[in-house]
Prior knowledge:
Pfam families: Amidohydro_1, HUTI_composite_bact. 39% of the residues lie in helices and 25% in strands. The chain has 16 helices and 15 strands.
Amino acid sequence: MQTQHTAFPCDMLVAAGILVTQDDDRRILSDAALVVTDGRIAAIGPADALAKAYAPRETLDLSGCLVLPGLVNTHGHAAMTLFRGLCDDAPLSVWLSEHIWPAEARLDAAAVSLGTRLACAEMLATGTTCFCDAYLYVDAIADAVEEAGMRAVISQGVFEIENAGFKTVDAALNAAGALTDRLAGHDRLRPAIFPHAVYTCSAKTLTRCADFARSQNVLLSTHAAETARENEDCLQANGARVIPYLNELGLLGQNTLLAHGVALDAADIGILAATGTSVAHCPKSNMKLGSGIAPVAALREAGVTVALGTDGAASNNTLNLISEMQTAALLQKVAACDPTLLAAEAALDMATRDGAAAIGWPELGRLTVGGPADLCALDMSRPQLTPAFDPVSDAVYAANGGEVACTMVAGKVLYRNGAFPGFDYPALVAAFKETAARLTRPGA
Length: 444
Ligand SMILES: [Zn+2]
């Protein structure tokens, strides 16, 4: 007979008003709590029962919040926050060659570090806990993300145009190898490789990147089929559209994530489904650059994993995945004049569990016992989240990102009510502004 209960020690007890787990049963719990120990979830259940059963060192009251798994941003170039608003309303080719590439030529490791840290702040403030980044100076990126406390898949960019980060493809691949060694066994950071696109990498370079990804067992991501023009140019240069060309070169497969996937025909979609290749849908970037509308509903119907990405802040211009969920859902509906396409739950899946699957980190994007304690919490006292009939609908269609009251990664609160406990935010912004001005207005 048991007469006395001993409460189990734990690091933190988190009270959650509504908990959207995104587990395999898509359980949504009211008046719930999470028990966190060593950065992982030790228990999920009714708040009153867990409060009796555990003796936490710390408590976190999110009882007025809608708690979601931390969002997963699967495509972006974090340091491009430095170029936000540098050039808007221009075609992709002009935007890249006349504005972005010249500014990027002046980058250095210190600038990339500042740009990445500001991006981390912006993502944390809008509920993102993990992102897949592709850029230059990956060591500086790894340092910045490590310090920010977030999770990231950090991809070494590879391309054959003059740039500030490396002189040759060999040097880029060596940097990718060094990053892979450095991050071996890291709990929050993973290495990856990112050949930029079929129009900036030769067939040989693309193949070398695929060989690297296979031999190191890391994610390969690349921009693919972003525009119809890209397919036309690829057909002319290589005798095939982008997707069959990448397939022929051995770049497609379960460890591959294609950013954009806008200009896809039925045969392309069939290839992606057959090879198990995932797509990072970046609706706002595609809309802003006038690239088109990715066939997300058709891809999902074919069994392709479709995740969400913001792309860089120079083509979006925010890193707000909540806004991206809403845009993705609305865009599919208007494209086909069919309101049943891409329902709220599908959009939330894309920003959470499907994003995690797409980057090969499937324990993320859901709140389950034993899984990482990565979450975000939306303040339900805001008018737009009232009366809270359906929390998934509210998160996708009503929230704008400004409701995020708390973001936690690996059991650590990294954002809480407008403040960043791990950052000196005003100092970061001052240094960031100075650097952004130096890069974009040389001689000014
Ligand atoms: Zn991109």
